[in-house]
Amino acid sequence: MKIAKQVPDYIRSLVPYAPGKPIEEVEREYGIKDSIKLASNENPLGPSPKAVAALRERLHLLHLYPDGDCFYLRHGLAAKLGVSADQLIFGNGSNEIIELAVRTFLRPGDEAVMAHQAFVIYRLVVQAAGGCPKVVPLRDFTHDLEAMARAVTSTTRILFLANPNNPTGTIYRRREWESFLAQLAPEILLVVDEAYFEYVAEPDYPNSLLYHREGRALLTLRTFSKLYGLAGLRIGYGIGDREMIDLMHRVRQPFNVNAAAQWAALAALEDREHVQRTLEVNRQGMDYLAREIARLGLVFIPSQANFLLVRVGRARAVYEGLLRRGVIVRSMEGYDFPEYVRVTIGTMEENRRLIQELKQAVSELQDSLEAP
Predict the structure, then answer these.
(1) What's the confidence (pLDDT) of residue 168?
(2) What is the DSSP letter of 67?
């Protein structure tokens, strides 16, 4: 096909993002029922009940286009965060905000610095725009801010950080963050992805929202997908300088955030009970899984998010063994962690089942390796 030959090499060489398997596909493929999904860091309690009620009340309005300005959500969130409404931009998940930032501020041939084994979408979006991803290795499964600062060159336009990082769940602390900021030229766009920030309990966690100041190009990314349980509606947001946000709005497509997502997100902001239950379930589940995974003789990376990165040996084999038992986790081969799976913290019932099935899957792997 002639048009395919015109596609540039930086598009041809892209590897499409591979999402986790949905429950329906696993049950159909393996002929099983009662599967559980602990693969995509979703909220095990489901969506905010207030969000569900808001959707039910407004379903008769789905024939109307959504509010292209997200007016009520914008002002409700601005009041909650203590920022101006014109410092906010909303997207179809925070993924879209990443794409808007790259399309606005990165030109073909420009560099963007990011960590290796961080959210793969940073690299994909930069490459798709004709930019040059510059990847810096993690240090002890954590962003190496010193090395990332050294990686900046005269052609660097954007630098991506994830805190906590996905898929490791690790964070960098306030002292190294402030030292890093002092080294970074203020005109380089610093995109800080805080999709999991609500789960962090460490007192020296540097909430990037507190570091927005005049002259610093800083964009904070957050989402309603995790804590609020609205992953299926795809809504995230960015916070930045008014001029920066205004420029990104010029690139943003009209009606990019659907009406249902706006209604649900605004209602979820007021659902403090759901938020507290979610955090408590996550704390209890994290403690349980950390204890039981250690009893299995497995190593995991201490996490500040709602998931754990667990070393199981041959990750693909263990992943497939769990699938056959109706437990969906995420093999981390695509992140260059071939010995690790990532498991979401579930309800206590789901966590117990995970441990039970993980024990069997790991045992089967060991037996196969020892067989003559």
Answers:
(1) 98
(2) -
